[in-house]
């Protein structure tokens, strides 16, 4: 019998420096992909996977995120007056019952591990999800569901994992394992952002995790690691030997919206999935390519 997963933690305090200037005055997690912000996708997946408590670890200048989970009275009234009932209903449908969304401030940008530790009093007993909204994973089954299902089999900690080119391992936490193949691999070590030649494999951690509450006690004591930050990867590595720790090669596509190029790609990929936009976007891309050579460079 495995404990149910009641909480999901969303670290959303970062500055989004790889997407500037878009993120100068709006949170990175409010960047839209097609018609909704990144946070919408992440929270919807957790809610649909049965998670009750949504914990946002925010920082200064992140008020737009809180507003997104609140009633927008003027907007609602305006839509009502103009008879736009469909849009009105869609916006209301996203609202969660009062009290389900909790906000915790990460007062200083000390790393992902520190952000998760900041949520310790807001997380319900038992295992919990951690999802970085800029790692958008899309597919038939959400990553939240896949992690919960994997955890039901293994217990302990499960981290989303994906094979990447060796030249790119320095952007990720990297998994050391005895059994490199298969969907669910036992982890014997984890290294945050190794040099390509020092990486134990090319199996990278994607920032969607299912973690046992024991991780909080580890984070409490933890020193800064790679990049001078308190790394979640190091805390998960410290769980090895005490509790099972697995990597899950999830099914679905990961869209890295933490960089400008990745975010652009995500918009195109998601628009092409969309019945309403697919044909028009394909046509537009083709036309743009044909006329591209003649175009003046962007200012
Ligand atoms: C974080 C994690 C890293 C993981 C990556 C995935 O790094 O620390 O282990 O591989 O997310 O996107 P960040 O991208 O925040 O530097």
Q: Whole-number radius of gyration?
A: 20 Å
Strand tally is: 14
Which descriptor suits the 3D outline? globular
How would you state the average pLDDT, rounded? 94
Parts with pLDDT < 50 across at least 5 consecutive residues:
none
Per the CATH scheme, the topology name is Spore Coat Polysaccharide Biosynthesis Protein SpsA, Chain A
State the end-to-end CA separation: 60 Å
Quaternary organization: single chain
Write down the domain tally. 1
CATH C-level class is Alpha Beta
CATH architecture: Alpha-Beta Complex
Structural class: alpha/beta
Helix content: 25-40%
What pattern of helices and strands is seen along the backbone? EEEHEHHHEHEEHEEEEEHHEEHH
Total count of helical runs of at least 4 residues? 10
Strand order, main sheet: write it out: 5-4-1-6-12-8-13-10
> Which percent range describes the beta-strand content?
15-25%
Bound molecules: 1-O-phosphono-alpha-D-glucopyranose
User: CATH superfamily assignment?
Assistant: Spore Coat Polysaccharide Biosynthesis Protein SpsA, Chain A
How would you sum up the major sheet?
A: 8 strands, mixed
């Amino acid at each position: 019998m495995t404990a149910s997963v009641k909480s999901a933690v969303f670290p959303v305090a970062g500055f989004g420096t790889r997407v500037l200037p878009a993120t100068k005055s709006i949170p990175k997690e409010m960047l839209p992909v097609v018609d909704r912000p990144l946070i919408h996708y992440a929270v919807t997946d957790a809610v649909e996977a049965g998670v009750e408590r949504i914990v946002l670890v925010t920082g200064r200048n992140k008020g737009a995120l809180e507003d997104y989970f609140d009633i927008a009275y003027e907007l609602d009234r305006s839509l009502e007056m103009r008879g736009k009932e469909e849009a009105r209903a869609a916006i209301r449908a996203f609202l969660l019952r009062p009290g389900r969304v909790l906000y915790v401030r990460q007062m200083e940008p000390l790393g992902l591990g520190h952000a998760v530790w900041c949520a310790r009093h807001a997380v319900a007993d038992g295992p919990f999800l951690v999802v970085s909204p800029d790692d958008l994973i899309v597919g038939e089954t959400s990553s939240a569901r896949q992690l919960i299902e994997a955890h039901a089999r293994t217990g302990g900690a499960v981290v989303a994992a994906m094979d990447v080119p060796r030249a790119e391992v320095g952007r990720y936490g990297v998994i050391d394992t005895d059994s490199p193949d298969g969907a669910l691999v036992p982890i014997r070590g984890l290294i945050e952002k190794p040099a390509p030649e020092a990486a134990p494999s090319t199996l990278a951690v994607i920032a969607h995790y299912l973690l046992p509450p024991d991780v909080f006690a580890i984070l409490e004591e933890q020193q800064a690691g790679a990049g001078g930050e308190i790394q979640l990867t190091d805390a998960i590595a410290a769980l090895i030997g005490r509790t099972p720790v697995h990597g899950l090669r999830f099914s679905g596509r990961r869209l890295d919206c933490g960089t400008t190029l990745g975010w652009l790609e995500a918009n195109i990929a998601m628009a092409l999935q969309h019945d309403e936009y697919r044909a028009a976007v394909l046509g537009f891309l083709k036309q743009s390519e044909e006329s591209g050579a003649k175009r003046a460079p962007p200012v």
